[in-house]
Write a structure and sequence with these properties.
The complex is a heterodimer of chains A (299) and B (473). Chain A is mainly alpha-helical and 299 residues long. Chain A contains 13 helices and two strands. In chain A, helix 1 crosses helix 13, helix 10 (202-231) packs antiparallel against helix 13 and helix 12 (251-260) packs antiparallel against helix 13 (265-293). The longest helix of chain A is centred in the first third of the chain and has 35 residues, at 9-43. Chain A is globular. In chain B, helix 3 (54-63) packs across helix 4 and helix 18 packs antiparallel against helix 19 (452-463). In chain B, strands 1, 2, 3, 4, 7 and 13 form a six-stranded mixed beta sheet that branches. In chain B, strands 8, 9, 10, 11, 12 and 14 form a six-stranded mixed beta sheet that branches. In chain B, strands 5-6 form a two-stranded antiparallel ribbon. The radius of gyration of chain B is 24 Å and the shape is globular. Chain B is an alpha/beta fold and 473 residues long. Classes of the chains: A mainly alpha (299), B alpha/beta (473). The interface between A and B is large, with 42 and 47 residues. Chain A: It is a multi-pass membrane protein. Chain A: Keywords: Cell membrane, Membrane, Transmembrane, Transmembrane helix, Transport.
Chain lengths: 299, 473
């Protein structure tokens, strides 16, 4: 027989406050997200072009999806883009956060400048990067040319279009840097002092203190980064429209096209569920692997 | 390198893209003039702008004779909703039209809705699903058949019958197929234009070659395009631009002269992999990959929506007559226009234009007709001074008003009267899906990844199942 714990008045007060603060989100979710989610389940079993009466088709949309080569192509592109943008983004922004965490003069200015790209509008970012990635006149290929390297065709090339978009995705990762900075500043100085006393050098302190202590933050950024990357499509729509030759047709763009260009709402809903499953699967894999490398100080 | 230097380098890396873009004058040179859009304040009592002063509009309106119809004005106040896709400049002109229309029809109130073209269909398809379509609706030629098939539109024949002075012969009959079904007409064109061969006179003079003319064949065009191609990088001159790609009017412009088609006339069978279409597509691919005489995908990347022809980087272009307005206003180079070239099977060009339609759910159809009738009358076109009026009686006056040379205006009228038609232009419900499916495959051919035969076979294989969606009961 186990003892039943009685909540203290403080715990009850905290619970009330928690529910009060979380209630706006819950109400918003129920009204504006849960309804469409439920509708999407129903839509995935019907055929509907907005003009005619919806027609129940059972699992036909799912069968069609499984047999749709462009769907699988879009899944491949989405995973490639997600892996690329998360791997590069997480690494690059972590290194930048380490630099921005240094006690230097003008630190605030440096941090502001690094965050600036995050507040540039999406369309401006797209136009900017169209310029940067241009095969002949773009900044990247000009820099490469100064080293005697002929740069690729980037967005005009089937092989380099996704890497080009991955590069662009890293540029606006200011929010990730902010999260890393918060994490870095939360590492107790005593750990570094103890390591120094033990004779640990810079690399050893970084590898044995900074990385383990930051692993929950890195994990958070990897998970949220993947979820965002797997849903990306707006900038890709503006920059490549899925081309050349469907090389950048990611799943989000494929869903958008079926829903709002072809008005094939049933199939678009089915594809949305495929995206949901993809996000859940990728997230589940990450959580299952997390135990091997994520260190929780108080666990 | 110390930490400070590393940080400075990182900051420089983050800001360099912005600075480099600011310093790139080539991009600024090639960028299109900004299109004004968005909401603006228009004085309801004196609508006007610098481009369309109210006083001049008032004077023009008074000088025009507005047509009559036997459809009576409403006995009491009614409001009709008119939805169009316009930019901010044109919107002022439309507001002026509404202002004077309301003076002539005091019982008709007009509620205007204006949306950007790329958002228009999505917005009004959603409204159609909700059963709240406007009374009068702009329609791109490729949308109308879908709306007709789904009983969203009301035919205008009965209203034309009630309007004795409605001159149907004033509108090019061969360009109305997009708006017809089962012998009924569901839309009246807001504009109508053929495609023409445009050329840069300065580049031809520099190359010492004769200008294109009515005698030209596609053989001559290919040969001249090769001769006109020169230079490299930012200074490259292309013989022709852009490369033909699967598009609704691919057949009418590029394949029918060779006896080929993208799809058959009923849009139920793919024909692009048949020998004659293959010959035409293969020749264009050679012009791209072997002769480099048309811009590649990479070269077009920064020219998004800005054709190299308009910036003086291409000697020839086949495009709609509506381009003349833009070309007439620029002084960077001298230009000319002539008939599209002939092929072994003759000369073809599409007559394309959008329309105004009356929605089936409209509760004020008579008022909607009064509006459509005047807006799309000869006087209506003259008032709006658009470049490509569907009513031919408005062409000369409008060309003069906007500065299009008289001989070019005559060319357009001749082409519309002679051989321009809607034949071969895709319009059935699956047309967008067909184009989106075929285009990436053709792009792989343009990148040299697959042969022309493989590309056309793959297009046929992938497009064929989609065509089932074109079957309209």
């Amino acid at each position: 027989m186990t003892a039943v714990s009685v909540p203290t008045p403080l715990a009850r007060r905290e619970a009330r406050r928690f529910h009060l603060f979380v209630s706006p989100w819950v109400v918003g979710f129920v009204l504006f997200s849960a309804g469409p989610i439920l509708a999407a389940i129903v839509l995935s079993f019907i055929q509907w072009n907005l003009l005619q009466a919806p027609k129940w088709v059972g699992f036909a949309n799912y069968v069609r999806m499984v047999n749709d080569p462009e769907f699988w192509e879009s899944i491949g592109n989405t995973v490639e883009y997600g892996l690329g943008s998360v791997a590069l983004g997480v690494t690059f922004t972590f290194l930048l956060a380490l630099l921005l965490n240094q006690p230097l003069r003008f630190q605030g200015l440096f941090r502001t400048v690094m965050y600036l790209p995050s507040v540039v509008s999406g369309l401006a970012t797209a136009l900017l990067w169209l310029n940067i990635l241009h095969p002949d006149y773009g900044l990247i290929n000009k820099v490469l040319a100064s080293f005697g390297i002929q740069g690729p065709g980037w967005l005009a090339s089937q092989e380099w279009a996704i890497p080009g978009l991955v590069l662009m995705s890293v540029w606006g990762a200011g929010n990730t840097i902010v999260i890393y900075l918060a994490g870095l500043q939360g590492i107790p100085r005593t750990l570094y002092e103890a390591a120094e006393i033990d004779g640990a050098g810079w690399w050893r302190r970084f590898w044995s203190v900074t990385v383990p202590m930051m692993s929950p933050v890195i994990f958070f950024n990897v998970v949220t980064g993947f979820i965002a990357a797997l849903q990306s499509y707006v900038l890709i729509l503006v920059m490549t429209e899925g081309g050349p030759g469907n090389a950048t047709m990611v799943l989000g763009l494929y869903i958008y096209r079926h829903a709002f260009v072809y008005f094939d709402m049933g199939y678009a809903a089915t594809l949305s569920w495929a995206m949901f499953v993809l996000v859940i699967a990728v997230t589940a894999i990450q959580f299952s692997l997390a135990g091997r490398w994520v260190h929780y100080e108080f666990k | 390198m110390n930490r400070r230097q590393m940080l400075a380098l990182a900051v420089a890396a983050a800001t360099a893209p912005v600075l480099s873009a600011c310093a790139d004058t080539r991009q600024q040179k090639q960028a299109a003039a900004p299109v004004q859009s968005g909401a603006q304040l228009i004085d309801p009592d004196r609508p006007g702008s610098d481009a369309w002063p109210f006083e001049a509009a008032e004077q023009l309106n008074s000088s025009l004779t507005w047509p009559k119809t036997n459809v009576a004005d409403p006995a009491s106040k009614v409001t009709i909703t008119v939805a169009m896709t316009t930019d901010a400049v044109t919107e002022v002109r439309n507001a002026q039209f509404d202002f004077f229309f309301k003076k002539r029809h005091p019982n008709i109130e007009i509620k205007r809705e204006s949306s950007p073209f790329d958002q228009f269909l999505t917005k009004y398809m959603a409204q159609a699903a909700g059963g709240t379509l406007p009374d009068v609706l702009y329609n791109h030629y490729s949308w109308t058949q879908n709306l007709i098939a789904n009983q969203m539109l009301h035919p205008v024949d009965e209203y034309i019958a009630k309007t004795p002075e409605f001159d149907m012969e004033d509108i090019p009959q061969r360009g109305l197929g997009y708006f017809k079904r089962d012998g009924k007409l569901y839309g009246l064109p807001t504009d109508m234009a053929p495609k023409l061969l445009f050329y840069n006179k300065d580049l031809f003079d520099k190359a010492g070659l004769d200008y294109p003319d009515e005698s030209w064949t596609f053989d001559k065009l290919f040969e001249t395009a090769r001769k006109m191609t020169s230079g490299s990088g930012a200074g490259k001159i292309y013989g022709f631009s852009p490369m033909p790609v699967p598009a609704p009017d691919l057949s009418a412009v590029f394949l029918m002269p060779f006896g080929g088609r993208f799809l058959d006339a009923s849009e139920s069978k793919v024909l692009i992999n048949e020998p004659k279409a293959r010959e035409a597509m293969g020749r264009w691919l050679d012009l791209l990959l072997k002769d480099k005489a048309v811009p590649s995908l990479a070269e077009l990347q920064l020219l998004e929506k800005v054709d190299p022809f308009k910036t003086g980087h291409a000697a020839m272009l086949i495009n709609g007559a509506w381009l003349m307005l833009e070309l007439s206003k620029q002084k960077a180079f001298k230009w000319g226009a002539t008939h599209v070239p002939k092929g072994p099977d003759g000369r073809f060009t599409p007559a394309v234009g959008s329309a105004l339609v009356m929605t089936a759910a409209s509760k004020n159809k008579d008022a909607a007709w009064l509006y459509m009738h005047e807006f799309l009358s000869s006087s209506g076109y003259k008032f709006r001074q658009i470049t490509s009026p569907a009513r031919q009686s408005a062409w000369d006056a409008n060309a003069k008003a906007v500065g299009i040379p008289a001989e070019t205006a005559k060319l357009v009228k001749d082409v519309l009267a002679d051989y321009a038609s809607d034949d071969g232009v895709l319009r059935l419900p699956a047309n967008k899906k067909v184009v989106d499916t075929a285009k990436p495959i053709w792009e792989r051919a343009m990148l040299g990844k697959i042969s022309v035969d493989d590309a056309l076979k793959e297009i046929a294989d992938k497009v064929t199942p989609i065509l089932a969606e074109n079957k309209i009961a």
